[in-house]
Amino acid sequence: MNFEHTEDRRMLADTLDRYLAEQYPIDARHAAAASPIGYSESVWNGLAELGAIGALFPESVGGFGGDAFDVTVVFESLGKGLVIEPFLGALVVGRAILSAGMESQKSLLGNLLDGSTVASLAHDEADGHYELSHVTLKATRQSEGYVLDGHKGVVIHAERAGQFLVSARTSGAADDEAGISLFLVPSDAVGLSRQGYGRVDGGRAAELTFKQVQLPASAMLGAEGQGFAVLEQAVAWGLLALCAEAVGVMDVAKQMTLEYLRTRKQFGVPIGSFQALQHRMADVLLEIEQARSAVINAAAAMQADRITRERAISAAKFSIGRIGTLVAEESIQMHGGIGMTWELPLSHYAKRLVMID
Asked: pTM for this structure?
């Protein structure tokens, strides 16, 4: 396997890295995270103009990439910049629409690609324990469509979203894969309410409540009761993106720690000259390369059969969780007490790694 990116992908990565270095310093990121919408609209629009969203989708729907490795390139750069703008929702919702949407629904992709519409996945529920098939929000058929009743939790960027991809149960028990249906729900739907809050690692999320939300039959994405496969595939794209983001975060944490080891002195010499710290840092570097390999393997399996894809994604997910936590802990410890301070960017990179896990 050739692990080298194409020239186009390298150029995209360089462009995004340069833009974020110039336009998205850590102070600007903090200000955006604390804002009422939880991100910067100017940065979101700027990145959209650079093609960061378009690179996530194929040319057939107006994008100019869409390969799994295009997704990893974009999100690795976003991780380096600690970006909190709503890329993940655009990817997951867009991929679901691309996979199962009717032509009228695919027309929404244009607004996702140019950044004019923010989309969010509304799937997680209380007591779900991260089981993808756990869905209790009810969708009851009526003569002209469906009525949704229930709750969804931790919906990222929900307060700003224009469209939600909502998983609902049209039949079966709470944890059955069969009986899950997907709906595209506009944010201004009557009976839909949002309770927003800030996230630990920056930005905002919300709890959604659906009370007799009436939808036309055309709001259903795919076939009734058969939404799990679409949901699983869309979430796999999201997991790949998060894993790639984590690799970008790890790279920055690694560089910050190496620089600190070279400049911080004790007993008149840089602490990086101490063999114990050298051994620990060598272990961190090896683990990060292992994480990178897991992401490459997952990206290569995205177009394979379901079992191959899910195994590779699960392996990457596990590796990133373990290694990300290790990198966060070791980086903080090798910085000493200063590593926990708000003023040092490293602490925010470490926090993001822990939250991705």
From this structure: 0.95
